[in-house]
Amino acid sequence: MKRLLTLSSLFLVMTITLSCGTNIVGDNRNPLLEEWTTEFGVPPFDEIRTEHYAPAFEEAMKMHNAEIQAIVECTEEPTFENVILAMDNAGVKLYELNLIFGMLSSSDLDDQMQEVQNNIIPRVEEHYNNIMLNEGLFARVKAVYDKRKSLKLDQVQMRLVEKTYNDFVRSGALLSDEDKARLMQINAELSELSIRFGNNLLKENGSFYIELTQEQVTELPEGVRNQAREAAAAMGKKDAYVFTLDKPSMLPFLTYSKNRDLRRELYNGYIMRCNNDNEFDNKQLAEDMARLRVEKANLLGFKSYSHYVTDDQMAGNPEAVYKLLEEVFEPAVESAKRELEEMKELFNRDYPGETFEKSDWWYYAEQVRKKKYQLDEEAVRQYLSLDNVRDGMFYLANRLYGITFRPIVAPRYHKECTVYQVLDHDQSHVGVLYLDPYPRKSKSGGAWCGNFTEQRYVNGERKAPVIGIVCNFTPPVGNTPSLLTFDEAETMFHEFGHALHFLFADVRYRGLADVEGDFVELPSQIMENWAFQPEIMKEYAVHYRTGEVIPDSLIAKIQNASLFNQGFVTTELAAAALIDMDIHSLETYTDMDINDFEKYNLATRRGLIPEIEPRYRYTYFAHIFNGGYSSGYYFYLWAEVLDKDAFEAFKLSSDLCDKELAHSFRYDLLAQGGQKPGMEMYRKFRGADPDKTAMLKARGLYQEPVVEEAVDIEADVESIAEFEEATKPTPSIKNPRPMTEPGKALRPDFAKKPIKK
User: Fold this and answer.
1) Is the C or the N end of the chain the one with fewer CB within 10 Å?
2) pLDDT at 710 (0 to 100)
3) Contact assessment for residue 358 and residue 502, using Cβ atoms and an 8 Å cutoff
4) Please, which residues have CB within 8 angstroms of residue 390's CB and are 6 or more apart in sequence?
5) Which residues of 348-368 are buried (b: 16+ CB within 10 A; e: fewer)?
6) Which residues are CB-neighbours of 548 under 8 A, at least 6 positions away?
7) Cα(198)–Cα(593) distance, integer angstroms
8) Among candidates 411, 415, 420, 410, which has minimal Cα distance to 390?
């Protein structure tokens, strides 16, 4: 996941010198306000204290206001240079603070940081809102926009002018004074609610765990037991084993524990997060945010919030999003049903006459995987140490782009971070990369990549970015290193793709740094395609004890099982994307019970089977209520169409790491930022519009062709080539049933008590 900013991303900057103003000098005693003298321009984390943030934000907002006022009061005729460029060059210090604080408040939040988050960040959002609704500033922007065709601008400058104008309009610049005031109020409320939502989730995650004895964990793999023992020790619990709601802790337990009651307890703790009618409950917050977003969209002239969001994305409208989700969801559910039947055969032997439950899925999926494919994920983990996977990523980046990663000593915000200088093929400096891999109580769940500083130009010279990859992988225990699952290794490659996107950025104007939201995941997801390619795996998948390179037979089993459980994985992903669109496609807000709303739209309307929950339920759906992905969780599937189609170009080449293709991908896509529309960039790389075929094939959503002799996929295939040839599918797509028009059938049985204002 790439960290997406909200309104503050509208004012991204490069310098603090204005055409009609002067430089503003801040408080030199605060390291956040000083010019950093650290090597490569990394933030001086060793000098920054929590108490520095509040005064730094205050001073940075004053600086930014002065810069904006200078633009408004400039007596010269509005031009590209003294309006658009001056805005692009304003607020650098404030934006830097936003980046640093945003990353650290997610990865290392303490009580003091939370207080800053609660008190200062809403004011920062209000600050940006005020700028976007500044009538004098908008008048000068509009003046440049109206005469833009006569200004002899190049293509990039023209795009910046048009984007700046549209950002103002989308922020309410054309509204009446009364509506502007209401919009400001809505934005402030949304900011406050989002912070509360995230804080509740963090606290709920930290407050739930199960404590077990040695007798209750005997069947678990040694590494899983050791991790649980260390988690207990960290809590001051002797001779105990603790499992939490962090996925590196929870999923191994669900996968390997034979104790059904304990699996149910842990899983229910996960899916009921912030949904327990306690002090951390998020139901009302989510409903309030949905109500406010409907009102905001209507104020701005859109039928629904999803219409507002998708209007400036590649998709263009909610209908295009629903069309994609329809093509994925129904066949995914059918595939999941078939997977369920296989698991039930084993389940019924263990629990005759009982009902298969949601919490049973991981355990019996692993049993089927072992039986059908002779693949033990725990055995594969021995080859996927964190260090190995990291080295594999670096090796791949070198093969593709010629870049190298050199460990360096630099200020760190946490002792578990490692830091690397990134060097280009000519040994020039590209940027700095921080890796922060392990869970801790102060860190949000999941994995993400973001900036501490962004690429920008200062006096015509490129300033390289500082990037962070943050994960929650199983930490090392004793002499055993961190060992990753398939999914975790894939996640590592995914976030590394975001990092490369940041590192390769070469954008003239910071206002054009951002790509469309549904383009964001293309650079990350395409990297996943290489993760388990045989020739790449053989370079990094080495047994952590013996030093043995992963054998062909094991790689073949991985390939053999590659489509296993994809029905489940795709269903839970598409289900989450659908409920995101559903709640944001409401054209008018009707008081509701959010749990009933979710159940109605997934189970009643669309036929989601009771054995599967969406990947995220509303009460812990941080992506859409605390992460910038509202009406945007579909981004992952939309981008997957792009990434699978793009990877086809490499597969059709004689070299999976074809340097000519990689050069085009780097400079025609990754380096461009938002200087061109996403589809235009994609067409330049691929030579055509993206085709869904590769994505549907990768997820096993094609109907298998009718053949005279069925392929025995249960066989222990020793040859990778033989397996690929034997299982090569032929395209055959069935037309899914159409779903109801967005906003029209999101109805009934979810009435509840009057909403709390």
Assistant:
1) C
2) 47
3) no
4) 435, 492
5) eeeeeeeebbbbbbbbbbbbb
6) 542
7) 20
8) 420
pLDDT at position 121 is 86
Tell me the average pLDDT of the chain. Answer: 89
Residue 703 has which token pair? 């109907």
What single-letter DSSP state applies at residue 359? G
pLDDT of residue 21: 35
This prediction's pTM: 0.83
Which CATH class name applies to 7-132+134-170?
mainly alpha
| Crossing angle between the packed helical segments 566-584 and 283-299, to the nearest 10 degrees | 60
Q: Report pLDDT digits (tens) over 177-200.
A: 999 999 999 999 999 999 999 999
Q: Which amino acid is at 291?
A: R
Q: Cα separation of 411 and 44, whole Å? A: 6
Best-predicted range by mean pLDDT (202-206, 250-254, 562-566, 738-742): 250-254
What confidence score (pLDDT) does residue 444 get?
Answer: 86
DSSP-assigned beta bridge partners for residue 463: 456
Q: CA-based Rg of the chain, rounded to a whole angstrom? A: 26
Q: Which one of 96, 378, 495, 572 is the catalytic residue? A: 495
Q: Which two tokens stand for residue 695?
A: 């994505």
Instruction: Name the nearest CA neighbour of 422 among 459, 391, 466, 452.
Output: 466
Pairing of strands 456-458, 418-423: unpaired
The residues spanned by each domain of the chain are 7-132+134-170, 284-375+561-629+716-757
Q: How many CB atoms lie within 10 A of CB 475?
A: 19
The vertex-709 CA angle with 704 and 711, nearest 5°, equals 60
Residue 239's closest CA among 224, 228, 250? 228
Q: How far is CA 707 from CA 203, 263, 716, 722, 728, in A?
A: 54, 41, 21, 17, 12
Report the b/e string of 78-92 with b at 16+ CB within 10 A.
bbbebbbbbbbbbbb
Lowest mean pLDDT among 38-42, 122-126, 252-256, 282-286: 122-126
Q: Respond yes or no: is residue 495 known to be catalytic.
A: yes
Same CATH fold assignment for domains 7-132+134-170 and 284-375+561-629+716-757: yes
Q: How confident is the model at residue 230 (pLDDT cuts 50, 70, 90)?
A: very high
Instruction: Tell which residue, 558, 480, 611, has the closest CA to residue 717.
Output: 558
DSSP code at position 603: I
**What's domain 284-375+561-629+716-757's superfamily in CATH?**
Neurolysin, domain 3 (1.10.1370.10)
| Cβ atoms 71, 82 nearer than 8 A | yes
Q: Which residue has the tokens 């005469």?
A: 147
Overall average pLDDT of the 530-538 stretch = 95
With tokens 């355990």, the residue in question is 363
